[in-house]
User: What shape does this take?
Amino acid sequence: MSDETQRPEGRHGIGETSRGVWTFTADVDLLRRLALSGFDWLALDAQHGPVTRADLHAIGRALGDAGTTFTVRVPAVDGPWIGAALDAGAATVVVPSVDGTADAVLAARASRYPPLGDRSWGPFPPLWGALAPDPATANATVQCLVMVETPGALAEVDEIAAAPGVDGLFVGPFDLALGLGTTVDALLDDHTPGNPIGAVVAAAQKHGILVGAFAGTPATARSLRAHGIRCLAVTTDVAVVAEGSRAVLAADDGPPPV
Ligand code: 3PY
Ligand code: MG
Assistant: This one.
C-alpha cells in the first residue's frame, strides 16, 4: 500500500446528530471491534479508564488501519495530553473539568498548531509509515469539545461557547449534578426556564457550535434528547459486554435436560 492510499482523507469528528460508544478499555482488538460495530463514534476515556499516553500509539495505529476515526477524553485540562491524543490520530478531543473560559481557551489552543494555537508538531502516523494531515488541514478538521460539568463552566458557558477554537460543549451530567449539589435525575428532569442543561444547549445554539453529552444508557439519552441534545454517548464498552452477555444467556435454551 502506498503512502498515498494511507492519507487520512475523510477524517471526520463527532456529528451534531450521532450516537457514540464510550470506552474504558485499552485493549486494541476490542476497541477496533467496537469501532466497527455501527456506532457513529468511539471515545476512549483516559480520565476514568486505564488508557495511558503509551497506549495511544498502538490504539491510534490499530484504529487508523481500520479506517476509523476516534475521540479521546483526556484526563484533565492538559495541553501535552491533548497534543498526544491528536498526535495519535484522534479526530476529536473531549476536555473534562473545565472550570471557566481560561481553561476552555487553553484546551482550544492546545488543539491547534500556530498561528491558531500552540500545539507542537509531532504526529505519530509517520512512525508506522502512514501520513499525517498537514498543519492547516489538521487545524481545519480537529474538534475540541470542552466539557460543561462544573459550576464554574456553567457560569461562563456563553463566553466559553464564543471562545475561538471551541468546537462544541459536552455535558457531563454526573459531575455537573455533583457540583450543583443535586442528583442526575433531578438535573435531567429540570425543564424550568434557565435550567442548567438548557443553558448549555442555548449557549451552543447561540454560537453555532455542537452540543453533546455523556448519557451511558438509552434511558439517560432519552432525557438528554428532551433537552435538545442529539449527540450522545449512548452506552459504554462495559455495558455492551454486560448486556450482550445477558441477551445471549436469555436467548439460549440452556443445557439439555439430563
Ligand atoms: C460526567 O457525567 O461527569 C462525565 O464526565 C461522563 O463521563
Ligand atoms: Mg465528569
Notes: The chain has one domain: 3-249. Strands lie at 18-23, 41-45, 71-73, 92-95, 143-148, 168-171, 210-214, 231-236. Confidence is low (pLDDT under 50) at residues 1-10.
